[in-house]
Every structure is written in structure tokens, then in C-alpha cells.
Amino acid sequence: MRLTRPMLALSGAALALAGCGSDGDQAAVPETATGSLEQLAAEVKCDPNMQTDADEIRQAICKNTDGKFVLATFATDRGQREWINGAKDYGGHYLVGRKWVAVGDTPVVRALQSTLGGDIEEGTDHSVHEKSGGATHAGH
Fold this sequence. Notes:
Helix content is about 35%, strand content about 25%. By secondary structure, it is of the alpha+beta class. A hairpin with a 2-residue loop joins β4 (about 95) and β5. It starts with a helix and ends in a 9-residue tail after the last helix.
């Protein structure tokens, strides 16, 4: 996928835009949602601002009462995993479903999980490296 780097940069920019919210109740996680980007966005009550509309990936910036986040859907499971693996180098928190991902701050991702289900994955925390003068953090 040649669009990977711009898409990753967009995800990082969206993370920078995402505001901090309060942690909500962490109720039982529902069954993982499926559907198109528009269907998933409707589930979490956001009007998606489309950024990428390609055969392999559709990506939008969303905002709802929980905050701002990136919502992306993928044509294949492999394409999704490759995108997530590359995006994790930029840090952040990822809510992962089948052929979709939502990226945002922890409180936003947790709130989305209460509606969409899915699994939360974390990106690389580069601040650990900066604080320790470049040393790696073994417990992470």
C-alpha cells in the first residue's frame, strides 16, 4: 500500500487533536461490531469526515461526545494488521475489530469499546525512551 505513510501521519495528527475525557464505566464489552465505515460511525453517533476513500482502506476523522478519533475500515484482515503494525510506531491507542480500527486517546477508545466491542491495543510509548535518555523500557 503506497498510501500507508500519509495515512499514518493523519492518524498521528488525529491523536494530537483528540482531547482528554473522563474515564467512563467499563461495562462488559459487547460483541464486536461489523459493517461499513458509515455503519460503525452511526453506532457511535459520529458524522465521519472522510479523509481516505480507497479500495484497500476507508478512513475518516470522527467526533462524538466522547472526543475525536480516527475510524478506518479495511478490505482485508492482512491489510488491517499491516496498517496497525505500522501505525503502532506512532503511539496511541487502538480499538480493533474485524476489518476496522478506531484510534484515539485512552478514554475515547474505552468509550467506543462499550458500543463497538473489539480489543484495545497500545502503540509504542516514545516518551519512555525520551525520559530515560534512549534506554529501552523492558516492562512495556
